[in-house]
Amino acid sequence: MPASTDFLKKLRPSFPEQPKAENLSRAYLFNYRRLWTLAVLILLSVALLPLITITVVNYRMTEQAIESESHLRTAKLVANTHRAISYSLTQRRAALDFIIHDNPLQDLQDPARLAELLDNLNQSFGQGFVDIGIIGSDGQQRAYFGPYALENVDYHNESWFQHVQTQGMYISDVFLGFRQVPHLVIAIKRDCPDGGGYVLRASLGIGFFAELLAGLEITGQGDAFIINTEGVLQSPARYHGDVLEPIKLPIPRPADHTEVIAHTTEAGESLLIGYRFIENTPFILMIVKKKEDLLHHWYQTRVKLVLFLTASVMAIVLVIMGMVSFIVGRVSLADEKRLATLHQMEYANKMATIGRMAASVAHEINNPLAIIGEKAGLIKDLFTFKDAYADDPKLGRLVDSIIAAVKRAGRITKRLLTFARNLEAKIEKVNLTETIQEVLSFVERDAQHRNIQIETQIKPGLEALCMDRGKLQQVLLNIVSNAFAAMEQGGKLEIEAAPAAEGRFRLSIRDSGRGIAPEDLHRIFEPFYSTKKNQGGTGLGLSITYTLVQEMGGTIRVESQPGEGTCFILDLPFNPLSSCPEASPCASS
Amino acid sequence: MRILLVDDEVELVSALAERLELRGIEVAWASSGKDALALAESRDFDLAVLDVKMPGMGGLALKEQLAKRHPAMKFIFLTAYGSEQDFKCIASDIGAQCYLVKPVDIEELIAAIKTILGPGKEDK
Predict the structure, then answer these.
(1) Could you tell me if A389 and A383 are in contact, meaning their C-beta atoms sit under 8 angstroms apart?
(2) CATH number of the domain that A434 lies in?
(3) What is this structure's pTM?
(4) Interface membership of A381 toward B (CB under 8 Å)
(5) Which helix (H) or strand (E) holds A99?
């Protein structure tokens, strides 16, 4: 499970929270989740819509082509079979026609001659003719040869006889007749010059149809059979019933050409039915094919096509999601860096402003302070050098306290000036102890008020370092301010410095404050991450500290136990003293 | 030894002059570069204590003028602005012997004067 979750995270990573909206004029640009969704949707629609459209269109076209091909093949088969059946029927009729015209009636009334003729017919056309007979114009069978006892049968009431009398020729559909065996009849009339006439009637077994249809190659569960116009089977069918049973398929509309129709059975089976009326007969040739058999190959191809499409779509989706995640991730990272840089510049500007203000205030105060100092000094001098005022020791003490106050104010203005100057980045000789004391002097008062104990321990070898004093000062000030913010009344701040590897030293600043929760610990150097947001924290102090330490080529890490305190451990490099720009020598009075 | 004290703050320069005089140092003071040049015309000074920032002629310009007329004259600068480090560079550039940041401690000033002029001068 973790592996799959990781994979999903890669596809849709969690982006950093967008910075506070009120700070940004176009906050929506920083909504990376929305950007991600939008990019994925647009890319997916651009990539997938054409693919799916083309595939669907292509699919439809191929399916139609294959279906029409099946229609065509069925139609061709129907047409060919029709030609064969029609031809054999025509041939048989023509043979009978020839017999009736070639043989005089006397010959035909001779059963021996009939037997001979039947034998000749069967030799010419294969076994098909069952019997043969001559019927007079009165409907009486005059002569008969065949396996059934049909001599002297009277046909004059039969409808076929009426038909042949008027039309001269008749082909019956399959029926049982007197013999109770399915057969069909071909009858041909010859008119006599005296106005009368007689009819030659031959019956054919339905094996004749079966023989013709058996040669057809029909795949799968296909079927070929003959029905009459009432929809009764005239030949046995493989799947649609036996002879003289009605079929369950629709009876086609009469047409003089081959037709192919699609039909769905009640069982939901899709069929392709090709049919053709056989001219001058009551027969309809029908070839039925199951669509499933016809489209078998197409179905296989279709499965492959769908699989291929699915695989393509999945690959596209994965690639797009991966790419978008990568790009949006980079954008969010770049934005974060840019914002952090902007804020750092803002911070640097702010510090520069504070520096200028501090210098200007120090300067403006220095002059009046100097006047007060000199005047007080003069008063004291007068006490000292002239005896007139020496009697009043109280006055002397007052002047001393004024001078002491002026000196204290002077120290403050000097410290402000030094602080302002140090804001400029400059590699120079740094006394670590002095720099730490300078920074601590800013929190001295606070420490006294809140009874916070400050201990510094600087190991030997760190008296003269060559490094960026301004950055070191800011880093120290940020960490010390943070430590003070975390401590209550009566806390303890310990600062330790010791030489580490060659050209580096280690500085640890430990407070006894409330500590940092483990879940916050790994994020405290992130820009805009603050646990003091409600108390006006910007979440930038430690991020800037981190950047400054990195700019100095050092590292910073933090250890903390909630309720026990926090320790920042810095590992900082310094240059050899020989490479440091020397300050000009002057009287060190 | 004779000292010329120049600062635009009259209150400051007069008090400082009086304090030096109380310590037996001969002092003349002026509150502008123009007055200081006039004073230097009439008398010789061993050393000048100049405020860097003054309206009109500043301490650095005044030093140029004074050094032209009295090549042997030494200089100490007073400043209320900038830091020690910054001023060290300026001071070495212009050949000042020393600088002091306001508010000035009188003992510091006297020590600086003695360092520059040497102990022998005092007896002269």
Answers:
(1) yes
(2) 3.30.565.10
(3) 0.52
(4) yes
(5) helix A32-102
